[in-house]
């Protein structure tokens, strides 16, 4: 009989692995971290590692997704509408996530981080759009959610390039106001 994922021992061991990985990622570049390093740090064996994760890339994906999930707190967006305020909140969460990673992680994570951020954002934007647009086809909602996720992610990258001297909300507010005005104007 297999154990449930809610078993406290399984959760505790998974947490040890994630914590060991986060600790090692502050010391080494991702490409230099091995499963052996993680198992030594977490004080577990390889079989236990592979019970929880397919490989080190799966661990990286899950670790970053978990941190981003906590930062975004998706439950907050289940009751929100898609508007300037919710976009600012999402943007702040993304920039906080990127700032915390830049303080702890070395280069080489960019592609994986970008993928995770965009995937999480697409889910959030899709849920927000579904609540507001009951008559739009699902494929159009998914495309719109993808557009929003890439846009917010792209803006967060630009914010990072600007040296992060401006507060995230001050950086994104004029952009959102411009978009709102542009969308509000009608073609004659």
Offer a few descriptive terms.
about 190 residues; globular; mainly alpha; single chain; about 75% helix
Shape: globular
For the CA atoms, what is the radius of gyration?
19 Å
Mean of residue pLDDT?
A: 81
**What string gives the helices and strands in order?**
HHHHHHHHH
**Category from helices, strands and their pairing:** mainly alpha
Largest sheet: none
Quote the beta fraction.
Answer: under 5%
Total of helices: 9
Poorly predicted spans: none
Helix content: over 70%
What's the oligomerization state?
Answer: single chain
**Span of the ends, CA to CA:** 68 Å
Number of strands: 0
Q: What does this molecule look like?
A:
The chain is mainly α and 188 residues long. Helices cover 75% and strands 0% of the residues. It has helices at 8-27, 35-42, 46-52, 56-72, 74-77, 84-104, 110-132, 138-161, 168-184. Helix 6 runs antiparallel to helix 9. It is globular and about 60 Å long. The N and C termini lie far apart (68 Å). The model has no long low-confidence stretch (mean pLDDT 81).
State the gist of this model.
This protein has 188 residues and is mainly alpha-helical. It is built from nine helices and no strands.
Topology:
Elements lengths: L7 H20 L7 H8 L3 H7 L3 H17 L1 H4 L6 H21 L5 H23 L5 H24 L6 H17 L4
């Amino acid at each position: 009989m297999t154990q449930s994922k809610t078993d406290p021992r399984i959760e505790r061991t998974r947490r040890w692995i994630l914590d060991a990985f986060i600790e090692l990622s502050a010391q080494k570049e991702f490409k230099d971290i091995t499963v052996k390093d993680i198992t030594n740090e977490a004080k577990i064996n390889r079989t236990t590692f592979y019970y929880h994760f397919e490989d080190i890339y799966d661990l990286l994906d899950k670790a970053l997704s978990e941190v981003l999930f906590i930062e975004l707190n998706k439950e907050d967006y289940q009751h929100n509408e898609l508007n300037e305020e919710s976009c600012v909140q999402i943007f702040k969460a993304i920039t906080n996530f990127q700032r915390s990673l830049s303080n702890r992680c070395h280069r080489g994570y960019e592609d994986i981080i970008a993928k995770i951020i965009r995937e999480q954002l697409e889910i959030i934007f899709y849920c927000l759009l579904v609540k507001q647009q009951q008559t739009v086809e699902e494929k159009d909602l998914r495309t719109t959610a993808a557009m929003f996720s890439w846009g917010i992610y792209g803006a967060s990258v630009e914010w990072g390039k600007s040296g992060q001297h401006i507060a995230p909300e001050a950086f994104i507010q004029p952009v959102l106001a411009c978009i709102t005005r542009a969308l509000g104007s009608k073609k004659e």
